[in-house]
Amino acid sequence: MRLSRNHTKKTGDYLEGMISDYYFMQGKPKSKGLRSDSSRFLTCLQFMFAIYATLLLLYMSTAIDIRGRISQHLSQFSTVSHVQDVASMAEGGGCEYEKIDFEQKKSNDSVMIKLKMDLYQEVLDFQSKTIGTETLPELMAMKSKWDLKGGNLPKITVILNHFKRKTLCAQLDSLLNQTLPFHHVWVVFFGSAIETSLKRIVESYNNSRISFISSNYDFKYYGRFQMALQTEADLVYILDDDMIPGKKMLQILAHVAGTEKYKNAVLGSIGRILPFKQKDHSFPSYRKFRSKEAGLYLPDPAYEITLDRVVRVDFLSSSWFLSSELVKTLFIETPFTFATGEDLHLSYQLQKYRDAGSFVLPVDPNDKETWGDSEHRLAYVSETTVIFKDIVNVRDDQWWKALSTGYITQWASMNPQNIDALFYAHSLEEVQALAPLIQKFKTTTGKKAYLIVSGGNFCRCEDAAPMLKWPESVCTERRFKIIDLGIHALSGESNSEVPILQSIYASMKGIIKIHNPSVVITVSDIDQNVRKALSFATETSTNGTTLVLLPKKSISNALWIADLRSTALPYWNRMKLSISIITQNRAPSLLRLLTSLNTAFYLGDTVPITFNMDSKVDEPTLQLVKSFEWNHGPKIIRRRIIQGGLIRAVSESWYPSSDDDFGLLLEDDIEVSPFYYLWIKYAVLSYYYDPKASLPELSSISLYTPRLVEVVKERPRWNPTEFFKKIHPNTPYLQQLPCSWGAVFFPKHWREFYAYMNMRFTENAKENPVQIPKSRTNGWQASWKKFLIDMMYLRGYVSLYPNFPNQTSFSTNHMEPGAHISAKDNVVQHAKTDFEVPLMQEDFTKLLPNGKLPPASKLPSLNLFNRAVSLKGLKAAGSKLGKDVLECQENEIVLVNNETGLPSHCAPF
C-alpha cells in the first residue's frame, strides 16, 4: 500500500510528499528504457544529497513541524499494511521488523513425537473428565460479564516489554486494529540499548493511549508486572516482545475472562506442563531429552501438538491476561530469583493464594486473527535456543521448589499420592524430638512419610538432615524426603505472626492436597501460631487428614504409630476415653490408683475422669477426690443419694455419649501401668477404627491377663504364654469373657448391654433364664458381670486380652476387701498370688509378634472356658443355647439397633 499526498499543499506538505514519493519508488522496478550512464548516476546522487540536507534543516527547524506532519499523515492509516509501508524507514525514527528467515522447526523423531502426543492426550483426557475443556466456539458461547455487543466493555491495559527485538511496530499495529479496543498501551524499556529508537517509534504513532516508560535500571522480567500494579483498568494484558496477537485476541481474552469459570484465572497462548515423577521416584529436568516425564510445551508444532481446546497448564509463557486485582498476588512471596522464572512464580502464587488456574486458550487454525502469537516462530525460537545450562538449572530448582512446597501441578492433579504421614518441625529441637518416629516410619516396610521443616531462620533442611543421619543431598535432589518451606520468603524479619501463619497454611494446604497423608505429626508444644496454621490446613482438607500433636516425652513410647495401617491413622483423634472410677471407702487404695493414672502416658489426648461414689462414701475418700488434680482433662464427681450397691455402681457409672466414646471402668483396688493408655489406643485404632479390620464381635479390651479359669468350679491356673507358644508366646488373644479388673468397653456393645440388662435384670440368679452349661457364673448373684457374660455368650462377642511373660499386664487387682472379696457370704477363697500380676513397665511392642499387633484375622479366639474355638463356633454355641431376648432359629443370633442397643431381629451368622 502506498501513501497518498495532496499536490496542492505547499512547503512542508510538498516536501513530505516528495520524500514519500522517493521513499516508496525505491521498491519499484526500473523502466527498460532508463539509461544507467555515469552522468545520470551522478545527478541522482546530487539530488539525493539535496533532499537529505533540506530534510535535515526542516527537521531541526521549529518553524516547520515536519515531525508532526509526518506523524499526522501516517496516523490516518490504521491498517496492518502500515507495517509494510514504513518498513524501510531510517533506523533513527521508524520501524524495523524481525527477520524470520527460517522454517518452523519440526521433529522427525517418531519416538519423541509419540511420547509427547501420548502425554498430551493423557492430560487432555484427564482435564476433559475433571474440569472440562472447551473449544473456542464453546468458550465464546459462554455467558460473560463483559457484554461486548451490549456495550459493557472492559478497560484493558496492555503492557509491552521491549529490550532489543524489532517487533514493536508489529505489536502496536496489531493492537490498534483489535476488534475490542484497548484502554492504554504502556511500552516499557528497562535498561534497553535501543531505547532511543524504541521511544521514537512510540512517539511516531502520536496516540495519547500509547505511552512509553523507561528506566536505565534493568528491572528484568518482574518490572512489567510491577508496572501493572499501577493500572486502573479492569484487565491487564502483558506481552513479551515475541508475541504479535491476532486482531481478535483482546475480544476473545476479555470474553473468556468475564465468564464464571475463568474469571479467577490467568489466560495465555503458550504454556508449559511441568515434569512428572519417574519410575525411580525422582523428577527429571524439564529439558530432559527423549523423556515423557519431562513435561510439555503447548502448543508445540515441532511435535505436531496444536490446541483446539482450552488446556490448564502449570505456567504460561510470553503473554498473560488477567484481572488487575490478580496481579498483586505475584508479589506475596519473594521470588526464588529475580533473574528468571516470573512466569512460573505468577502461576504458583495465583494457585497458592487465590486458587487460580493458568489456561492456554484454543485457536481457530484457519484464522490467524484468533491466535495469541500470529507468528509462532518468534516465540518458539526463544524456547528452543535459550537453553543455557545455568538458566535451565535455576528454573529446574525453581519449579521443584514450587512443587515441593505445595504447587499442585498437572502431575499432582493426575496422580494423587497417598502417604502415611507428614512430619512438621519448626525448629531443630523439634526435628530431634521427632527423629525416632521418623526413622521408624522410614524403616517400616510399606510405609511412606516425609519431613517438612520451616526453613529460613527457623529450621533449614541442610541443618535438619544431619540430625536424621541423612546426607545434605536430600535437600537438593528432586525427590520427596525433606521439604523446606522457606517461610522467610513471606515473613522476612517481620515481628508479626500473620506472615508465618499465612505462609505455613498456604504451603501445607497444597502439600496435603498433593500427598494425601493420613496424618500430619508434630510436637504438642509447637508455637501456637504454627499450630493454628497446621490445624487450618488439615481441617480444610478433603481427604480426612488428621493433625497429631505428640508430647516430646511420649514420642519414644509411641513408635507403634508407624505400624498402624494408613486407613486407621486418620482416626487418631476420634477415640475419646472416659475413665469411670467406682469408689466408696478405700481412700488409700484410691490414692494408689490415682497416682498410677496420673503418671501414665496419654500422648497429649484429653481424657475426662469421673468419680462414682455411693451414698455411704467416707470422709477421707471425699477429701481425696476433692483435692485430686487431674491434668489430662475434666474431672467430674458424682455421688448417689441412696445406696445402690456394686451392680448399679458399676453398670450405671458410664454411658457412651457417641460411637467414639469408650469407657474404662476401674474399681479403686486396681492399679494401672504407665503404658495402659498406649495399649488401649493402639488396640482400638487397630481393631475398631481400621476399616480393613473386620471384627464386629470385639466388645471390649482388657488391661489384665487372668491367671485362673474363673468360670469353672475348680478354677484351675492358666498360662496363655504357654498355651499359645506354637502361634507366638506373646500373641494377644480373644476370649468370650469380659474383664472386671480393668477393661475398656466399646460404646455400641455397652448400649446393647444396657438394653439387655434392662430386659433380663433380676437379683435372684435362679430366675435368670440363661443357664450356660457347666458355668459357675449361673450362680452369681448381684453381679453386673454375670449379665454381660450371658449376652456375650448368646451373641458370640469377645474381649481382647494382652499376653506377656509372667502375665505382666496393664492393670492389676490388689484383692482388697470389698463387696465380693472377703465378703461374709462369699465362700470362695481369693489368694493374692492368683490375681495380682506384674505391671508393664517398658515398651511392650517389642514383645508382640513381629513387634506389632497382629491383624484381626490372625488373633486366636477362646470360648468362656479357655478352649480354642472360632468366632463362628462361639456364635453357634450361643445360638444353640437359644435363650436370648428374641426367639431365633438355630444358626441365627440377635442383631440390635446400634444407636439404641435394642434388639432388632434375628439373622444368620
Which spans have pLDDT < 50 for at least 5 consecutive residues?
A: 1-39, 53-93
Helicity, in percent? 25-40%
Q: Tell how many strands the DSSP assignment holds.
A: 29
Q: Radius of gyration in whole Å, from Cα?
A: 41 Å
Largest sheet: 9 strands, mixed
Contiguous helical run count: 28
Mean pLDDT score: 87
Cα-to-Cα separation, first versus last residue: 93 Å
- The neighbouring-strand order within the major sheet is 19-18-17-20-24-22-25-23-27
Task: Please explain how this structure is put together.
The structure is a single chain. With 909 residues, this protein is α/β, with parallel strands linked by helices. The strands form seven sheets. A nine-stranded mixed β-sheet has the order 19-18-17-20-24-22-25-23-27. The longest helix is centred in the N-terminal third of the chain and has 23 residues, at 38-60.
